[in-house]
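Weekend entry, working from home. Most of the wet-lab plans are on hold until the incubator is repaired, so I used the time to fold the two sequences that have been sitting in the queue since the last round of cloning. Logging both here for the record. First:
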Amino acid sequence: MNFGTVVQHMMYGARNDPNSLPETLALEKDIVVEYVTDLMQIKHRILA
């Protein structure tokens, strides 16, 4: 299972359409990646 499939399942679990538009999935994927990247940068600053 790839990351895009996981995002699609998360969105369906949040009561979105089971067949979300590719653009919506791409946007959601970008948001998740940016959020996790920010969290890791904060963690790095705290531990440095």
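Second, folded right after the first finished:
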Amino acid sequence: MELCACKDVRHKSIEECVFAPYLPANKPEKYATLCKEFDISKLAKHLMGIEPSLRHLYFHAEAHLRDPVMGITGLILHLQRQVQDLKAELKIAKRDYMMILEENHRHQHLMIRSPL
């Protein structure tokens, strides 16, 4: 099994490390992000009891480092704006598609009615 990135949190075996499934040795930036945002030894003790998803904590920590004021809320608001923008673009694309279909239908109808 690959070693965990949290080499300074000492465990007798890799199976004992609560971070091992989430912090592989080839992703040290994830561990560094958690260390910047949280007390890693307290986090390890906390995880021993409940073992929540570290991915959520990593995203929370990363968002807070990028935007200390809004944190994860800022990311959520940004994603909600993107969804709204994409919905508006989709509505426009559907309208344009319907206009093209109507134009093609009118053109075909005129071709059928007009004598050669």
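Plan for Monday: verify the second prediction. The mean pLDDT is 77.
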